[in-house]
Amino acid sequence: MMDALDRAISSTQAHLDSLRTPNGHWEGHLSSSALSTATAIVALTLVDREKHAVLLQKGTQWLCDNQNTDGGWGDTTLSKSNLSTTLLCWSALHLGVRAPSSAIEKADSWIISHVGSLESKAIARAVIARYGKDKTFSVPILMLCTLCGTLGKDGWRHVIPLPFELAALPRTWFGAIGLPVVSYALPALIAIGHARFHHAPPAWWNPLRWIRALAWPRIRPMLQTLQPGSGGYLEATPLTSFVTMALAGANQLDHPCIPLAVDFLVKSMREDGSWPIDTNLATWGTTLSIRALDGSVSSPSALRSSLLSQQYREIHPFTNAAPGGWAWTDLPGGVPDADDTSSALVALKTLAAHDADLRHSSFVIRHCLPGITWLLDLQNRDGGIPTFCRGWGALPFDRSTPEITAHALLAWWTWHDDLPAPVQKRIVTATGRALAYLEASQREDGSWIPLWFGNEHTADESNPVYGTAQVINHLAGNTHLATLADWLIQSGLDYLRSAQKADGSYGGDADSPSSIEETAVAVQALCQDRSADALVRIQQATQWLFDATSHGTRFPSAPIGLYFARLWYHEQLYPVIWSLGAFQAARKVLVSEKH
């Protein structure tokens, strides 16, 4: 197997290197999204149907061509139908350009079979039930349906009011007041909240009617302040589309943010008529690629310059995040987050082995210290690390999550020895709290449930295999940290042993279909296993990866990504990066066994 591993590693490295852009970094390629395509169609139609007729026709045709055989739509062309995306596409076709009646009728049947009827109350109830108290996505879905007329004349009655007037309060108050949307969806809170108020204001005697009417002139300019130079909020088609359609639907076509938003949507459309869920995950993909290539990464100085230029130096207008972090993209609409900051810091340490400038104390003080401090300051009271903001813990995307907590631990300990003594002490204290959080959040079977990567084929759409494997991989990524967390690593491996399929592969859990992505991260974690049959398990899983990737030459993606609230995507780089990590880890185990 050693020769086969060497060939697979060489082929996978070459494939990953071939995916670099002319600028030397990685942008990857996100899957086309029916959800994004539907939202863009509605936004452009409401702004100017005639001007965008050609784009709308192409987008509508793409939706019809990619409708699932059961009549619904999934988030990607590989995804099974789900309620949210089907409602958005169905509504977009009602509003769209010459949509065939057969596509709408098939969607009618799918919705009836899953909701019970096409009655507006039943649809609204089903959407709200899917997302619970998090209104980040349920309210936009219901608004879009109402704007398209699929919720009937009383549709606005089913769109839950959003307190857009709260956006006028100091940003530091947001954690205390408990906003009903996630921190980075502030533009949606403002635009959709105003659209709902415009069409269905409270009764004349309700004080909120007058408060909101008086607040709008003050809050209206915030949408332009929050808009990045690219025009795309978060560089994401759905959020940009929701803001645009809300303003257009509320007779705010003269709003100064609309031209830039429309320009972003037009430029984001792909040649085939589709839109991706986001522009790119360039920073995330680049840092993961650097780490996977490790000693074989070329042009380290150029990569260093690219990464350092993306570190935030000012307070972010969306989340009020302090300087020091990194976002998932190198485009202006990104927001600093814990996962990307951790990955950037670990990638910089990887580059430091090839770049003497990165080992200089001035570099550590100027770049790494702010990043490490940013992560330390993010730690929640429960000891875990959230995605974006400390203290916004009411909703899933602002609560602590295991895989991000373990990633932050790895970043802390990767740079621990290079940092000033007071920061080292902070890391030791924060580590104790973080490990306690990981112990408390571990399920009885030894698994951890991640936030940002789910699996649509598991019963609850979670992904315990990915979550558990990545917690283990992060904790095992530093020798001292691995010693501190050994009991967590070994208990996590108990779950991975139980979830492995007979052919050695992994899916989101023991019962879901196998994928390259999940098998690869699990193989890397299995290489920490000290049980008697560990080598056999590793060899079985590695052989499956050989076959699935044609020995490191082809890497079909699976939709395992979870974005916003149950919005699936797949990314070109994931199976390549994680397979390379798996092959390298398996080789180390085989070499150690040999000796």
Describe the structure concisely.
With 595 residues, the chain is mostly helical. It is built from 25 helices and four strands. It has three domains: 1-30 and 444-595, Glycosyltransferase, CATH 1.50.10; 33-276, Glycosyltransferase (Alpha/alpha barrel), CATH 1.50.10.20; 280-441, Glycosyltransferase, CATH 1.50.10.
Q: How many strand units?
A: 4
Q: Helix tally?
A: 25
- Which structural class is indicated by helix and strand composition? mainly alpha
Strand content: under 5%
What does the overall shape look like? globular
The CATH topology of the largest domain turns out to be Glycosyltransferase
Could you name the ranges where pLDDT drops below 50 across 5 or more consecutive residues? none
Number of domains: 3
List the defining traits of the structure above.
Glycosyltransferase, about 55% helix, mainly alpha, 25 helices, single chain, 3 domains, 4 strands, about 600 residues, two-stranded antiparallel ribbon, globular
What does this structure look like?
This protein has 595 residues and is mainly alpha-helical. The chain has 3 domains: 1-30 and 444-595, Alpha/alpha barrel (Glycosyltransferase); 33-276, Glycosyltransferase (Alpha/alpha barrel), CATH 1.50.10.20; 280-441, Glycosyltransferase, CATH 1.50.10. Helices cover 55% and strands 2% of the residues. It is built from 25 helices and 4 strands. The strands form 2 sheets. Strands 1-2 form a two-stranded antiparallel ribbon. It has a two-stranded antiparallel ribbon with strand order 3-4. Strand 3 (561-563) and strand 4 (567-569) form a beta hairpin. Helix 2 (34-48) packs parallel to helix 12 (237-249) and helix 20 (464-475) packs parallel to helix 23. The longest helix has 22 residues, at 573-594. The radius of gyration is 24 Å and the shape is globular. The mean pLDDT is 92.
